[in-house]
Amino acid sequence: KKQIVVIGLGRFGISVAKTLHEIGHDVLAIDTNEKSVQSISADITHSIQADGTNETVLRELGISNFDIAIVSIGSAVEASVLCTILLKKLGVPYVIARADNLLHGSILERIGADKVVYPEQEMGVRVAHVVTLSDVSYYMPLVAGYGVARMTAPGYLLGKQIADVGFGPKGKWEVAVVLIQREKEIIVTPSLHEVIRENDVLVVAGNSDNLEKLLHEAK
Amino acid sequence: KKQIVVIGLGRFGISVAKTLHEIGHDVLAIDTNEKSVQSISADITHSIQADGTNETVLRELGISNFDIAIVSIGSAVEASVLCTILLKKLGVPYVIARADNLLHGSILERIGADKVVYPEQEMGVRVAHVVTLSDVSYYMPLVAGYGVARMTAPGYLLGKQIADVGFGPKGKWEVAVVLIQREKEIIVTPSLHEVIRENDVLVVAGNSDNLEKLLHEAK
Ligand SMILES: Nc1ncnc2c1ncn2[C@@H]1O[C@H](COP(=O)(O)OP(=O)(O)OP(=O)(O)O)[C@@H](O)[C@H]1O
Ligand SMILES: Nc1ncnc2c1ncn2[C@@H]1O[C@H](COP(=O)(O)OP(=O)(O)OP(=O)(O)O)[C@@H](O)[C@H]1O
What we know:
CATH class of the largest domain in chain A: Alpha Beta
CATH superfamily of the largest domain in chain A: NAD(P)-binding Rossmann-like Domain
Order of helices and strands of chain A: EHEHEHEHEHEHEEHEEEH
CATH architecture of the largest domain in chain A: 3-Layer(aba) Sandwich
Helix content of chain A: 25-40%
Strand order of the largest sheet of chain A: 3-2-1-4-5-6
Strand content of chain A: 25-35%
Number of domains of chain A: 2
Structural class of chain A: alpha/beta
Radius of gyration of chain A: 22 Å
Number of strands of chain A: 11
CATH topology of the largest domain in chain A: Rossmann fold
Oligomer: homodimer
Bound molecules: adenosine-5'-triphosphate
Number of helices of chain A: 8
């Protein structure tokens, strides 16, 4: 488990900090806004009101000893850039910074961020790919309209075999079920004769247009 | 292809609108802020400055004829709720609304949103799961630490067989390579003897702790 500092407790930062804490990492959450710090204090072991652009404060907090830092300050671009510079200066080995836009992101890369993320932009791409797939809850794009989708088995698929619904290499749509999550069990590469049960989470790989047609036909 | 209206052109809304346009849908992008509308006009066929909470304007724009509406107004919670109410009132069959927080989301569900998304919160969960997996670019959580990760093959895996690296049912980590994207080709359920090449995108399924150990050992 790692020692991780999260600076900036907006919607993204709070979610990162809480999830890291649930995973079991040792998390320090920082924000200039007292209310933001308060809102997370029940869920995180250490949260403190502080300014991520203040080098003295960062040193006092022992930031140099952290394994990973996440700069999740959002629209305050200058603060996000300055904070990232300081973290690398203080020797944090791995710094993930969130960018508001491409220009901000390229600046972060230049000044040393090890990884730059664009939460809203990435979610926009994913949501756009599933607007026509109302049963799909997650979508991981791969290349040119092809991706991996996660869906809870809808009513019209229950009790049917995977191949009969149209999945698999013999199906006309070339959409494969690569994995089924059934309760706490994971079935990797299920047989084409596997019967879909209620609450099964299906992870399928295929062209998203074809997936839409397959589901439409199955209804 | 569908007729889709996107209301609210923040970082999330712009990304949704542009991606939908690239996919080939007929997109109308709306925002009260002229600058936001201008920033997207080069990429989207139709973008217009308008107030999504103005029923008269929505009727004039023929919103009732749209297949899908996406309310991507962010922190202006009342506007987002009122806009969603109007879209359902005007008969838009499928309305996706973005929520700022859980309370906002539950209100949206109650007043008729067909799907509610939390872009920053969802991205926070995903990023948290891959902070310790620096080579992983996408993560789709499934259950209890288990998920599907996408990674570009790092240098230390090149030229090696999948099974030799530690993947597969015989590997001690129980992480499976479910798919390889190689150039424009997709290889579903690759053989354990498949040799990993430069630029291969690997989609792997397994416990994220075990994936981290597998990659660590492979280095
Ligand atoms: N110098 C700083 N040090 C610490 N925290 C900061 C600093 N500057 C801004 N923040 C905090 O970063 C948080 C996120 O910033 P902001 O609200 O501008 O971004 P946002 O893009 O709306 O975020 P999100 O989309 O994650 O909700 C805020 O809670 C803010 O108080
Ligand atoms: N009534 C309205 N009609 C149309 N657009 C609106 C309305 N109210 C707000 N908007 C627009 O919604 C957009 C997004 O809202 P806002 O910037 O508050 O959210 P945000 O949470 O920061 O968004 P993001 O995280 O996507 O960048 C803004 O461009 C704003 O002008």
